[in-house]
Structure formats: C-alpha cells, structure tokens
Amino acid sequence: MLLSDMSNKFIYTYLNLRSYINSSTIRTILKTTTYIALFTIVFISSWAVPQEEAYASDNWDCNDAYARAYFYKLDWDYTSTSFTIDQYVATETTTIQRTTTTVDFSSTSNIAGTVKGINALAMSPTGVMYVTITSDGHGTHLFTISTAGVLTPLAHIADYTQVGDLDFYDGVNGYYGFSSGEYVSKDGIDRIYFSQGAFDTDSDGNGSDIARPNSNMIYNVANGTTTTFPDPGFVSPINAADYAYVGDWDGYELVTYDAINNKIHRFDIDNPSNSSSIDPQTSAFSGASTVLSAFSYKTPQGEIRFIVDDTNGMRFEIVRNGTNNYSVTQKGSSFLTNNSDGASCGPNAYDPFSPTFKATLTACSNGFATP
C-alpha cells in the first residue's frame, strides 16, 4: 500500500513537472517570437519612415495642392549675410506668394572674404534646389538649399579670378559670378548649366565679346566634374540673364527671351554652334525690361512652356506653336526683388494657367483653380 502511494505521488509529481516544463517552454517560445516580430516591425519602421522624411525635407515641392507649378525666386540685397527663397504660384493677372524661407550664410563653409554674388538658382525635376555663391576669398561655390534654409556645400566651381571678379553688369553690385543656372536631365545624364548673361560674355551689350573662357560652365551632377561650354555668340544677352529647360524645341534645350529686343535665344547643348536667335510671331511689349528669372512647366497635353519675369514686374509666357514658330503673351505681373533669379522643377512643374491637372478643382470665372 505504501509502495503504491509512493508510486502514485511520483507519477503525479512527474506529470505536474512535465506540464510545467511544456507550458513554460511554450510561453518562452511565444514570448521570444513576439519579441522578434516586434523588433522586426520597429526596425523596418525606423529604417523606412525617417529615410522618407529626411529625403522630403531636402526637396522642395514642384506643385501646389491644386496641381499648379510652384515657382521659386531668390532675393538678396547685396549686403546682408542672408537671402530669401520665395515660393509662389502665378495667375493670369497676379502672383500668389506662399512662403518665404530665409537662408543664412554667415557661418557657411566654402565662403571667404566678401560675398560678391548669389545667383544661378536651379532645381532638379524632383525639387532639389541649387545655388552658387561667389566670394572674393574663395571664388564660386555650388550649394544645395534644404527647405529649412540650410546650405550644404557641393562643389567648388571656379576661382575668383576665373569667374567671380568678372562683373557682367559692369559695376552693378551683386552681379559677380554666374547670372544663369538651369538643371538639364537628358539621355540619362543630369547636368547644371551656368553662364553669365544667358550663354554669352558680352558684358557691355555691344555685341562683341571679351575674353572670358570660363564664363559658361557645366556641372555633372553624377560625378561632380565641371567643364566649360562655348559661347554661341548671341547679341546683347545681358537683357536676358536667365534661361529655362524646355526639353526639345526644334533641337534646342535651353531657351530665354530678351523682352527689350523681342528676341528668343535658343541654345543647343549637343551642338552649341547650332544655337540661334529668332523673332517671335508677336510684337514687342512696351515698358519691358531686363529678364532676370525664367521658369518652365508642362501643360496637361504634355507641351513644355516657359515664363520669364523682368525687372519692372512684367511676366511673359513663351509658347512654341510649331516648327521655329513662337509667340509671347503677357501673363500678369510678378513681385519685384533686388536680385531676382528664379527656378522651377521644369517639366515636372505643371501649367499654372490650367486647372485640368486635377479633375476635382473648382474653376473660377477666369478659368483658374481656386487658390
């Protein structure tokens, strides 16, 4: 009897211990599996989400909520240790300003001595913004600008004696270095084109050039190399100090408008000697002045157009109607700035004068989407 009781107790204890071990093991396995799953989710989230946020903070918006192009304009008073980037959209009659971002360069590296020029604003199709700053102690340096107004040094473009001390407006303060900058993405190659006075080196506007072999330069975004491109020999390009990327207008990729002389200048990046000037089908505009800002965009039909702003606050839209056939229309007014260089996302910026990009828009009586 005693032996039987002892056997029963042993069996009972063994079963309880085995049950405890099994349940404890299962709990441990479940707990471990849960920890692994949670760690995996947290790891993936911490990798993916912040990466996207960091990327977005360095890219400016190409279009607003109504699918209209955002245009960006640089303003510097020639003496301050900061400049501003204004974001706006255009309408048929006016300019709607959205935000102003202040960019402080007082303690930025790769700037030395006196800042002589801030210009050549350019944007990639994805909204990365570039600018050149020329100082007499360092020369011309290329930077990116984040949406928070932070400058990041990218590349030294030229020494001050190469480009910087060549004042292309003959003594006007703040116009040292480059005046024009435009991002071109073609055939799988991304490049930024820089020049003084829109392709040319004719600083006094008399139609003849002076020796400025490095006044027109190309920056290769992928490998960071810089090369020069030849002067196409346009007459008085000083009146059109910025140009826009239009894809392919009759074999020309970069185009600008001289509003004073009513001339359209076209640059062929593949064959610069093929570059030319042409008269638009429309007459000149009274009161037009020097063009300092150019912006391109795409219509709902896939057509690339561009607008320019002059120093008097007049805005013009340039349209290609057919082979070597162009027209210019005045499109309201722009706001005035001290040193007004402009940029957009180019073909990734949508037509501000058409509401058809977004079917849910409410159209105004003049055909515009409500801001």
What do you see in this structure?
The chain is an alpha+beta fold. It is 16% helix and 36% strand. It has 2 helices and 20 strands. The protein has helices spanning 2-57, 160-164; strands spanning 71-75, 82-90, 95-104, 115-123, 129-135, 139-145, 151-158, 180-186, 189-195, 217-220, 226-228, 244-249, 252-258, 263-267, 276-278, 291-298, 304-310, 314-322, 325-333, 341-343. The strands form 5 sheets. A 4-stranded antiparallel β-sheet has the order 3-2-1-20, with no helix packed on it. Strands 4-5-6-7 form a 4-stranded antiparallel β-sheet. It has a 4-stranded antiparallel β-sheet with strand order 8-9-10-11, with no helix packed on it. Strand 18 and strand 19 (325-333) form a beta hairpin. The protein starts with a helix and ends in a 28-residue tail after the last strand. Residues 29-56, 202-209 and 359-371 have low confidence and may be disordered.
How do you describe this structure in short?
The chain has 371 residues and is α+β, with helices and mostly antiparallel strands.
Break the fold down into its secondary structure elements and pairings:
Layout: H1 2-57, E1 71-75, E2 82-90, E3 95-104, E4 115-123, E5 129-135, E6 139-145, E7 151-158, H2 160-164, E8 180-186, E9 189-195, E10 217-220, E11 226-228, E12 244-249, E13 252-258, E14 263-267, E15 276-278, E16 291-298, E17 304-310, E18 314-322, E19 325-333, E20 341-343
Antiparallel strand pairs: 1-2, 1-20, 2-3, 4-5, 5-6, 6-7, 8-9, 9-10, 10-11, 12-13, 13-14, 14-15, 16-17, 17-18, 18-19
